[in-house]
Structures are given as C-alpha cells and as structure tokens.
Specification:
about 525 residues; mainly alpha; 21 helices; sodium
Amino acid sequence: MGIGLTEFLSIELATEHPQVIPISLFIVILCLCLVIGHLLEENRWVNESITAILVGAVSGTVILLISKGKSSHILVFDEELFFIYLLPPIIFNAGFQVKKKKFFHNFLTIMSFGVIGVFISTTIISFGTWLLFPKLGFKGLTARDYLAIGTIFSSTDTVCTLQILHQDETPLLYSLVFGEGVVNDATSVVLFNAVQKIHFESINGLTALRVFGNFLYLFSTSTLLGIGVGLVTSFVLKTLYFGRHSTTRELAIMVLMAYLSYMLAELFSLSGILTVFFCGVLMSHYASHVFAMLSFIAETFIFLYVGTDALDFTKWKTSSLSVGGTLEVSGVITALVLLGRAAFVFPLSVLTNLMNRNAQRSESITFKHQVIIWWAGLMRGAVSIALAFKQFTYSGVTTDPLDAAMVTNTIVVVLFTTLVFGFLTKPLVNYLLPHDESSDNTGNSRGKQSAPGSPKEDATLPLLSFDESTSTNLSRAKDSLTLLIEQPVYTIHRYWRKFDDTYMRPVFGGPRPVNQPEC
C-alpha cells in the first residue's frame, strides 16, 4: 500500500533534516505572535512580552496534548543560542536608539541605579535567599548558587513601562527608566560572570575586593572596546562614504562590526553586552541608520519560549519542590526583588536630588517618579531566564532536583512579574502621572530659561584660547571650575558637547548642530 505525498515529505524531512519541522513550526507561531501583537498594538494593557508569553503558553498546551503529556517544547533552549545570537541585536539596538542627550545628561544617575543598584539588590536577594530558603525546606544550594541567584533576579525588564511612558511628555523619567534598564542588564551579566570566577574554597577578607576589582576591569575594558570599535566603524563609514552609493552596504558594515565587537569581547572573556551597547551608542552618534528588526524578533522569540517552557512537566517532575513549595520559594524571591529594588531606588533618588539641588537645569526626581522607577524594574525577563539556564542547566536540560527547582522557580517569577506587574503598570502610571500633568512643563521651562551668567551663554566658546589674554583664560578657567563644583553633571556634559562638535564629529561624522550643539 503506497503512502501519500504529505507522509512521504514528513518522513524525508524527519530523517534527513530533523530540525526543519520544529523550526518551521516555531517560525509559524512567531509570525502568529507578531500578528496578534500588531492587532493589540493600541491596547497598552498588553505589550509584546505578555503577548508572546500567552501565545507560547497556548502553543505549549497544544503541543503537550498532541504529544500526550511527553513534552511542551518545539525547540530546546540553549544558553549559547541566547548569548551568541539573540542577545547582541537586543543590546545593540538599545544602544543605537538611546537618546544620547538625555542619557548622558543623566549619566551619573543612570549609572548609580544601574551599577550601584545591582550590587545592593544582589546583596539583599542573595542574603535573603540564603537565610530563608532553608526555613522553607529548600536546602543544598552552594554559596556560588546563592550569589548567582542574586544576580539573576537583579536583572530587570522595563519594556512594559517604557511602552506606557511618553518620551516627549516625561523625558527625564523615560531616560532614567530606559538607561537604567540597559545598564542594569549589562551589570547583572558582568557581575554574574565575576561570581563564576570566585574560588570559594579559598575565601578570605579580600574576596569581595577581588570581585569588585574584577567587575571594574570587565566593565571598563568592555566599554573601551565597544567605544573603539564604534569609532573605527564611524571613521570608515565617513571616510569611504558608503551611504553615497549603497545604504545597504553601510548598514551591513555597521551590523557586522557591532557583532564583531560582541564576539571579540567574548573571545577575550570580557562583557559582550557592554561592548555592543557602547558600540551601538557610538555608531548612532556618528552614523545614520537604525537596526531594530532583529532585536524585536529576538525578544519575542525568548518570551515565546518562556511561555512554552512553563508547561515542561519534565522539569516540574524532576524538581525537589512540590507545587506548593515552588510557590512559596517563588513568593520569597518576588518579595526580595521588591525589597531589593526599594533599597536603592528611593535612597539614590534622594541623593541625586541633593547633588543637583544647585543645578538650575536639573529636574528633580519626584516621589511619584521614584515609585514608577521602582515599579518599572520589578518585571523579570530574558536575561534572568538565560542566566538561570546557564547556572542551573546544561544546554537547557537538567537532571538534578535542586537545579530543576531553581529553573522552575525562575520561570514562575518571570511569568508572575511580567503578567501581573505588567498588567498593573498602565493603571499605576495613569494614577501617578495623569496625562495633563505628565508633560514635565517645569523641567522644560527650566531648560529654556537662562539665569544670569548661565554657561549656556558661552557654550560656543573654547576651553582656552591663544588669541586671548592670560587673565581672560584664567578667569574662564575659574568660572568653569566653579561650575564644575556646583553643577558637575551639566558642566561635564556641556564641555563634552563642545569637544565633540570641535574635534570628534569632523573626524568620525555625524550631524552638525546649527545653533546649539547637542549630543
């Protein structure tokens, strides 16, 4: 008895190309997810992350029923797939699209939230889990595991809040949430890698200093590598003027060089996420294209997988915790996430306001803004999932009950924070920032006003001039030093703009401002 064409093709594909069917199916579901996301675009209650998770959960349920409970997976997660292929376009696009003027104007605040905040959050979560997990009957984790848990759950996902905030109406708030989200992810990954290098058998009083020193080394060298590759690429694009004949070649060079910067960082055991971010910042500053498609697909891919993986009965059966125990542990982790975030957002906001109290152009971070910044960082997403799989699985598979328990708990926390906190984000933001009050008129008026003697009046003057007298140069240096002490962030930003317009843009390209130079 002969077989049909469909059966014949299925047998051929399954034997010669076993991955064709699952990959094709996943692409179909991914396309379906994008279509549903488009239809729900006007609904700010549901963002792409929530849509992808729900579609993934439905798909996983269907696959689970078809396979008669054997598996809910279409593809098996591989952390190498995430870190090598999915993460680079996400971070590069974030660096490419960052609003540099606001980002660098609030650079110290963003870095304090994104770097110091991660250290504080990691400390609280690591210590809290070490203290509370044994009381819940969840024992057996090592010191490395507890520190890794701290970094895993310190990584945020601010996409939901950013989709609700309006950049033109709340520029300061949007800049802080966006900037902290990117720096937070980079810091979490760098700190996670630093934890992996700790020799716990020989811990002493200098261990914390070694970890911090290793972190600073990874952070600084990765940043410099990204800046270097970005400048070289911008110089090549400007000198050879690729865009004159083909914007496709220009875009291809930028994407390939950004990916090369990431791979070089990984090759030299640095942080590829930091390198490709600053590479994107430099390229966007001195070049002219935006690259967002792969970033969007990569993020959707990850959350789609999270939805299907939530129904992986193999991990639930392997886990050392019951369903009730998993909910208890996940609840503790979520509570520590809330506490760890509050422990740095509110104190650092107060400190920032104190530092900027004399700055005429600096906007204060109001208590409502602080609540939104705190809330925006409560969702956990792709980076948390990837780090958990890297720490507790081998190529997405684990047979250890403790490791399986941590993976399932991570998935539960990501699902809960993304769905519950994500759904509540819009009503919270609308309650705290009504539309007619969220336009930051105060901040805009500050930016337009210029007090007597404001540095804005002489923004085009050089740092020092050989055409002027020594007394004039000394007087200017004295005024600059006074401004640096009173308004450090604005003064540094102002002089960087002058240096950038005078020396950097003529060499590396980029638009030249007509009136007021901006970054």
